[in-house]
Every structure is written in structure tokens, then in C-alpha cells.
Amino acid sequence: MGIMDAVILRLDALCSERGITNNKMCTNAAVPQSTINNSVNGKTKNMGIVTLKKLIDSFDMTITEFFDDDIFRNLEQEIK
């Protein structure tokens, strides 16, 4: 699994834990829904750190808290 897949799974898990939809997360973060859709559908390979920070902020988390999850511990090497 690559980093982008892991980020999407982590965001989905946080939405599920908090009982909100991806749409509500985007609204809370002031990020267009199409940004998440493009990432999920593979149209965008890099969401962008500013966008990710806004999404993380919408969960009232720090970046460190977001990435402190097992899903990020054994990622594939991105450089091949």
C-alpha cells in the first residue's frame, strides 16, 4: 500500500469513528468534495500537504496524531 492509499483509508476511518460522511469532513475543512473524490478515484496522486492539513484540522487533530497509526508503519517504498 502506498502513502496516498493509507491517507484515504485513515480519513475514511476517522469519518466512520466520528459518524460523519466524507462530504461533511470536506465541508468542515473548507475543501471541495471533488478533491477527495479525485484522490479516491486515483485521478490525483498527490492531495497536497495544505489540503491534508485542513482535513486533519477538521478532526481537531495534529499531524502527528493523524500519522501515529498502524496503517502508516509498514508502507511500501514509494521510489522504485
Number of helices: 5
- Structural class category: mainly alpha
- Principal-axes geometry comes out as globular
Describe the oligomeric state of these chains in a short phrase: single chain
Strand content: under 5%
Largest sheet: none
Number of strands: 0
Q: Radius of gyration, rounded?
A: 12 Å
How far from one another are the termini?
Answer: 13 Å
> What's the mean pLDDT score?
89
Catalogue the unreliable spans. Answer: none
Order of helices and strands: HHHHH
Helix content: 55-70%
Quick rundown:
The protein has 80 residues and is mostly helical. It has helices spanning 3-18, 22-29, 33-40, 49-58, 63-67.
Q: Could you explain how this protein is built, in words?
A:
This protein is 59% helix and 0% strand. It has five helices and no strands. It has helices spanning 3-18, 22-29, 33-40, 49-58, 63-67. Helix 2 packs across helix 4 (49-58). The mean pLDDT is 89.
